[in-house]
Amino acid sequence: MREQLNRVLKTPEILFIGVNGVIGGGIFLLPGQVAGLAGPNAVWAYLAAGVMVMLIGLAFAELGGRFDRTGGPSVYAEEAMGKTVGFTVGWSVWLTYVIGWGVLSDGFVSYLGSVWPGIVPYENAVIIGLVLLLCLLNTLGVRFGTRLIQVFTVSKLVPLLVLVVAGLTFAGAPGNATLGLVPEGSGGFFAAVLIIIFAYGGFEATAIPAGEMVNPRRTIAIATIGTLGAVTVFYMLIQYTAMRIEPGLADAESPLAAVGGLMFAGGLLFMTIGALISIAGTKSGVAFVAPRGLYALSQDGMLPGFLGRVSPRFKTPVVSIWMTGAVVIVLAVTGTFATLILLNVAARLYQYLMVCISAAIIRVRDGEPGDATEGPNAGRRFSLPLGPVIPVVAALMCLYLLAFEQEPMNLLATVAALAVGLALYAAARATRSTTSEDSQE
After folding, report:
1. Which of 9, 287, 380, 381 has the fewest Cβ atoms nearer than 10 Å?
2. Hey, what CATH topology would domain 11-428 get?
3. pLDDT tens column, 326-359
């Protein structure tokens, strides 16, 4: 029996969900690296990344209207290319979460060290303690995890808005309105675009609640384009004003904290607190979602059954929570910040690539999505203009960034991580097959 959902969500509400899902800790961590790679052209790198992600988002939007099963990208890939490919996409989604959590953990202690230098020798201990705390809170129950997310939802936008206003009005360095004082980048324009992809993670949230929208076809299209358009403009303004205030942004370990110190008295503390709140909020969201992805793969028989064990008292996926936390600790303590970002982007691009290919395959195979007559997606579905052209173009862009902008070692590490997942997948299927044979005897 299908779950019947209330159709109450309108376009403005979905836009808020999308913007909130995208803007997180990443924008506090990347401006320095982006400035170092692209120099004054860093602002336009955000525009290029935004256009690319918007094309990918449109593929998500059409697929989101076709299927009412939970699982998102892994469901799309499974429907288009089979269960094994679907698993690799689900596994890569989990990888993006755990690597992203590691990135955020490193960024958190970096900002904390900018106002509390005494903590620097104990950074690893702080990382481990925070990861364990989030695992504990999520073990104790769903409400503990979701309440943390709610606390940080709006507050993270305040310091960024103050930065933009200050940079456009009174705080810019004299003679730097055209960013002429910003040194030329050393890594290339598309290298900057590559790492900016990290800051766009979360746009998929606009297509997920399709069954609860008043008009899914219209809302998903507007919300996807509106979210990514609004976020792109906001990111461009943040990058521009940050470089206008601090031309040497590329050399700052905590970029927006350095900018805050030049804005006004107390600005460093203000921006640092904002960064810590935003990063902590994003970490709490990832800590809540990531283990449930691992749990779902186990429940579907794609990973060993012990990962699907639930706490009898708290009814939370306790094994997946602590397994995810353990992997995050290893990554955060042993990996460098820049390497973790590129690993996250590589896994994310694989996920996006498979979704775009799936969108093209399903459009060619099944034609334009027709209207649904029942289920949570009943009503008119969003349909991509130009048929499979948009997802094909987006897939080629993903391939370009993977093939020509990623370091070979990062690609090898991503392939190795996928291989580990496939080995677990094969073991789970073999165990399940043996169990089925034993039960039939």
Report:
1. 380
2. Amino acid/polyamine transporter I (1.20.1740)
3. 999 999 999 888 889 999 999 999 999 999 999 9
